[in-house]
Amino acid sequence: MSTYSPEVIKRHGLTQEEYARIERTLGRTPTWPELGVFSVLWSEHCSYKSSRVHLRRLPTKGPHVVLGPGENAGVIDAGDGWVVVFKMESHNHPSYIEPKQGAATGVGGILRDVFTMGARPIALLDALRFGRPDHPKTAHLVKGVVHGIGSYGNCVGVPTVGGDVAFDPSYDGNILVNAMAVGVARADRIFLGRAEGVGNPVFYVGSKTGRDGIHGATMASEEFGAGSEEKRPNVQVGDPFIEKLLIEACLEVMSEDLLVGIQDMGAAGLTSSSAEMAARAGSGLILHLDRVPMRETGMTPYELLLSESQERMLMVCEHGKEARLIELVSRWGLDVCEVGTVTDSGRYVGTWHGETVVDIPVSALVDDAPKYERPLAPARRADNVHEPAIPVPEGEEYSAVLGDLLARPTIASKRWVYRQYDHMVRTGTVLGPGVGDAAVVRLPDTKKGVALSVGCNGRQCALDPRRGAAQAVAEAALNVACVGARPMAITDCLNFASPERSAVMWAFSEAIDGIAEACEALSTPVVSGNVSFYNETEGRGIHPTPMIGMVGLMDDASRAVPSAFPEAGLEVLLIGEGRPGLGGTEFLAMYDETPLGPPSGFDLGAQRRLIDALLEGHAGGLFRSAHDVAEGGLAVALAECGFGGAGLGLSADIPAEDRLDVALFGECAGRVVVSTANVAEVESICARHYLKVVRLGRCRGDRLTLRVAGQVRVDAGLSTLKARWSHGFEGAVE
Amino acid sequence: MRFAVVSFPGSNCDDDCVRVLTEVFGQTAFKVRHDEHDLRAPDAILLPGGFSFGDYLRCGAIARFSPIMAEVQAFAARGGPVVGICNGFQILTEAGLLPGALRRNAGLSFICEDAYIGVEGRETPLTRGVQGQVLRIPIAHNEGNYFADTETLTALEAEGRVIFRYVAPDGRRTAEANPNGAANDIAGICNAAGNVVGLMPHPERCAEALLGNTDGRRLFESLLAGEAQR
User: Fold this and answer.
1) Cβ separation B112–A240 shorter than 8 A
2) Mutation target vs A (from B16, B87, B112, B206; most A CBs, 10 A cutoff)
3) Which of A263, A553, A603, A690 is packed most tightly, with the most Cβ within 10 A?
4) How much is the pLDDT for A1?
């Protein structure tokens, strides 16, 4: 019995113990294609082997949850017979190596996860993290990623309606590209990734298979070392035109009763789609690999199984309806080919010109894949490691500090980015990028709106992963509530460094608990998600970044509220219980790149009350604008309220804190700036919800003047501030 | 009124055009596939935006060979109104129904944002009674940089065939108002007969109050009023 060298096994991302387990399962040495199949399906990326034991602690159920995690995307009920289907996924590793194609195929992959469920994609969002703006690679990566997202989303005709971009040195060697897709379907037309019905034919639909992306999943399950650029051949190449045809062909096929199951070929390609479909159905599958449409000659079973060529789907057709399926798909000029059959053998079988080259129990590949309870060790918190040297400005010099903050690319206008994305195609975008705290897209054929927000503050998570993760959920919920929608459910993209380090695994476990607590408190279950480990280079990991994508619903999309003051003379109020602090703030980062603590206080109960109060006010049409106070603190939030809308300034006394800079630039979750014509009613709602309200004055004029304890600390023309904010991003990347 | 919206592989504003015409304006509108030979007796044809055949060659260069384009040519020759929006405009230039070409934006990147469009020139099905107004209409393109040789440009100007121009909100022509480097700030033109119109901006994206802008309605209303007159 011949076996493989330790080096070959290592190259397949398998440990010696895992390899021994494969031999035990099969009772023999795996064939070369079998080794490849185990390699990708047991990779961290596909098997969630380090995260599964923790993911179980996430709340996934709720009265409006139609389908939680486990399928290709999560599904919630939107009423009137409609469901909203959504998921977020990472494409970090490929995007660092080849930013344009990496980001483009990230968009393509997440779209397929949504339309494979039978949903018409209606919106895309992207959460991006880059290293320090002056890092030599950053500008190149930003341009490539934005170009990649734009080129794919624009062509495929799905609007990119929102997103989140931030910069921090922890992402210098590992950028994050997290793409979220949202679709809508009729509640009775949801399709699942299941290979059911013995004898039903299995069809391959879409692009031909080439040699690109082989071992992409394995690559995404390793940290980067020197020379990671050499992994460029592992990155897939996308074709949005084919994706567009695939969307239309699939939705057309799904409008008739032809399919039993359908799944896209994403990470680990044909292998994972077919094995997962069989596993979910508890069935078996035989695939005739020689029938797979091939882009090049001389391809082997190993390559066909592992290729991550894009824009491919696997469909299980009801026996007897093959001709109609072939007819419909062919009209779109796509390959459609019967490559296999559903069996009841419980085995995953691949043949090559009649010879069996793969024969593995399905359960061994998916459900019985390795699971690890990796050791956890609390990281030393960064509290008071050292006192940062913050210069204390005199008098009104805080105006200049505010200008500097507004020009930081994390805070500055993202117009440079979203101008390159078609955010209006499909004529459903009610609030596009840069208008509201969340994007709002109409639900087709109804008056309803779907509100969408993505984000996570990595620095806060570095200080305290549990509180930071909970805060990410709360902030996303608050964004959705600001525009007037009720937060319904989340998808998450958990970006972490190597799970083999106990401090990272501890942070991951803490973040899971933080998400779980916040989702319980806010009644927003987790319906889909993805884990991305190994975001580290040469031992240096990213901040824990559990990205949250929130979906909210509103009954009347036409009542969506923007962030900025719309009309002079409205009363501006600060609502919320949060007490700001300096820990992990953007202000502090201007003087010291290391996230410093302590983190600010955080109260989930107050978050819930704030969201409820906002929704109550929205129901009565009380708010003309609403904007949460996030990075940069209150001074930045008030300036931002004057940059859009009617371009109005404010002269206000803001609450004093123990430090002047905390009052102006301190951050905490759970504060919102609103404008209203009906102060008394807003105050009474807030009183009922035990929320503090501070009157800041009426928006008017073209200056921002902020007084603390009676003394003017910021006094600047809005146009001066807006110029810094408008050019900060472009200045950093061009 | 009956509208045929031609759907090429990669068209992605075809549904939007149909939706606006049917749901907002209560007209009859239907998609006609690129490989069909029958336009199904429309009163007007729309060539929608998108990335026909992926636009991997010059935009519209492959779409113009689609079987349906012979019917579009014949319809245009009979004087029927044909409107090409964005990729549709690009296809019309490739098909020789409109002069000139649309090159890559001068800034080399895709641009999606509102633009101010001055409506001028001679009367066309799309601009009847709208001339002299400034409309706010979104653009979304990578190749909207209109180009033609000097003689063509001179003729277009002399014959009043420049019907849409990028302008500042107050209607003045400024360098900053031109988003893509288009010659003479051209956003849209018509053919010599005036029945074939191409424009880069997307009026179908701004015809409903819900979307925050209804300036595009005026162009559709012109189209509908023209048919009522006939």
Assistant:
1) no
2) B112
3) A263
4) 43
Identify whether the C-beta of residue A89 lies closer than 8 Å to the C-beta of residue A177: no
Shortest Cα–Cα distance, B110 to chain A (Å): 5
- Could you list the active site residues of A? 45, 91
Residue of A nearest to B112 (CA): A419
Q: Given the residues B13, B59, B86, B190, select the one marked as catalytic.
A: B86
Instruction: Find the radius of gyration of the CA atoms of chain B.
Output: 16
Quick one: DSSP state of residue A627?
Answer: E
Task: Find out whether B42 and B86 touch, Cβ atoms under 8 Å.
Answer: no
Domains of chain B: 2-228 (3.40.50.880)
**Which of A338-342, A543-547, A569-573, A586-590 shows the lowest per-residue confidence on average (mean pLDDT)?**
A586-590
To the nearest whole angstrom, how far is the Cα of A420 from the nearest Cα of chain B?
5
Task: Please list the residues that pair with A209 across neighbouring strands.
Answer: A294
Q: Between helices A138-156 and A718-733, what is the axis angle to 10°?
A: 100
Please state the rounded mean pLDDT for residues A246-268. 94
Question: Which residues are within 8 A (CB) of A236 and not within 5 positions of it... i.e. 6 or more apart?
Answer: A94, A101, A105, A212, A213, A216, A308, A309, A310
> Does an H or E element contain A549, and which?
strand A545-554
What's the pLDDT score for residue A397?
85
Strand segments, DSSP code E, in A411-515 are: 429-431, 439-442, 449-455, 486-495
Residue indicated by tokens 């700036």: A673
Predicted ipTM? Answer: 0.97
- Sheet hosting strand A545-554, strand order edge to edge: A429-431, A439-442, A449-455, A545-554, A486-495, A526-532
A chain contacts of residue B19, beta-carbon cutoff 8 Å: 427
Nearest CB to B12; choose among A151, A333, A425: A425
- Closest partner residue to B113 (CB to CB) among A419, A427, A442 is A419
Chain A hits for B204, CB-CB cut-off 8 Å, are: 427
* Contact list, B142 vs chain A (CB under 8 Å): 154
Specify the pLDDT at position A224: 73
Taking only the tens place, the pLDDT of each residue in B2-51 is 999 999 999 999 999 999 999 999 999 999 999 999 999 999 999 999 99
Considering CB atoms only, which of B10, B110, B211 is closest to A241?
B10
